[in-house]
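MODEL INPUT / OUTPUT PAIR
PAIR INDEX: 1
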Amino acid sequence: MTPFSIAGIQMYVSASQENISAMKLRVEVALARFPWLDMILFSELAPFGPLQGNHPETISTQIEIFQELAAQHKIWLIPGSMFERRETGIYNSSVVINPNGEIVGRYDKMFPFMPYETGVTGGTEFLVFDVPQVGRFGFSICYDIWFPETTRTLAAMGAEVLLHPVLTGTTDRDVELAIARATAAQFQCYVFDINGIGAGGIGRSCVVGPGGNMLYEARGSEEIIPIEIDMDLVRRQRALGQNGLGQVLKSFRDRNVDFSVYDRSRFSHEYHDSLGPLQMPHRNIHS
């Protein structure tokens, strides 16, 4: 086993001012307490909060700050995500920075939380990246995990750990915890599901092992969540099943059926169409 340790940072996120200074401080505190950490992961939209209007027109300067921070401390760093304005639209975008301060991957959230994340364009490219001598990591953001096709694709690309920053401040956090556990079990991978507090969410970040077992669940206060992962455990469970039981990735590989629901030209979406447009619910007016 090659030791590799990841810390999720569950921190207070402001909606009215930048949080980058606070994030830098949390990195320094985390490394002072746990100097053996290899990677630090922040929650979705941590640098500027959930309001699009508070994000800068371009995020290159802010990304450079995080690149310098990663290089200074020789750590892998994922600084949550930021709204990025491009010619093709506004994206909920994140980067993965290696210990040399280099960007090794970029990702745009595929499933903006519609109809609430209005005006945000969904990405189309998956992200996996390798940590040398350790293993392969996959990346998704918040609502993406509700669509198991996203994690299935990452697992099929070899991802053994799912890094998953979220911003959940709603009543469905219990459901998300269940989805995180189910995702880990279905795809036999670690899941780091890191939420914020304040304008960044209601906390309850979690880390799930490749058998679907909850390794840690935070509460509603600021926390540093350091977890050492074991890639050999992932590989053994994928090869032999948890406790010698289901080998789900191989069963999917060896399937006898192709799923026509994914082919828009072959499958009738009459039922989906009957559900109506994707729009904000309205208040019922009672006389």
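PAIR INDEX: 2
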Amino acid sequence: MSKVILITGASSGFGALAARRLADAGHTVYAAMRATEARNAPQVEAARAYAAEKSVDLRTVELDVLSQESADAAIDAVLADAGRIDVVIHNAGHMVFGPTEAFTPEQFASLYDVNVLGTQRVNRAALPHLRSRGEALLLWIGSSSARGGTPPYLAPYFAAKAAMDSVAVSYAAELSRYGIETTILVPGAFTKGTSHFAHVGAPADEPRAADYAAGPYKGVPEQVMARLASLEPPDADVADVARAIVEIVDTPHGKRPFRVHVDPSHDGADVVFAVGDRVRREMFRNIGLEDLLAPRVPA
């Protein structure tokens, strides 16, 4: 059945790929992004052209996850246009790279704002509607960095993605009795095929970063980036993430997996997450809330 889907951070990367795949699969897709009349105007036009060329229902909507007003307006616009929302995909995010000490607290806060608080703003805008429907999906695009191998120099990003994962896990139990299903998609470190690594942010404290670059950690940044890339097999394809998103959305309600891994480098996150998710299930059984582990399915 065709669904109405909102996906954040859809100007490029996983978001843009997934928006097109979902539209190709017959869904009505709202590719949400900020600055639709400025910096991202070319992406808006590209989406419009794709929709026309492929005869699919791919639309765009202004949504800056750093603004509650913008999130509220985006949800209102989609509801006014389509009449409902069936799926919200939390995809917006940003990454930085450099020695942890050289990032200011404000930079840490900024990463947390985009990757964590942004999901909360969108949820607060969308959940009253989703809860009223009795059947919906929240799909969170996480990161293997939250539990897998964690190379140095990515601490602000890793911390933010781990926090987002914790928020997603808690929301899953708090929304299941409303019939809202949760899936967390965990991509690995795709270093090619998106702008994620190309647009990586740098530490604001350049003198401290220079201390690391000239000291005993000289060459470590280059080694991290080169070795991460070398772990990817030649056939690693970022489109696999978009295909996984379509498969999750198209799975019948109540049958979707709680967590899906797409990691060609196999950094071990699947092993660690499996333990944590098992312990979570055991805890819910022990406290008599096992029903919260799965969404209520309408009769």
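PAIR 2 NOTE: The beta strands are 4-7, 28-33, 58-62, 87-90, 136-141, 180-187, 259-262.
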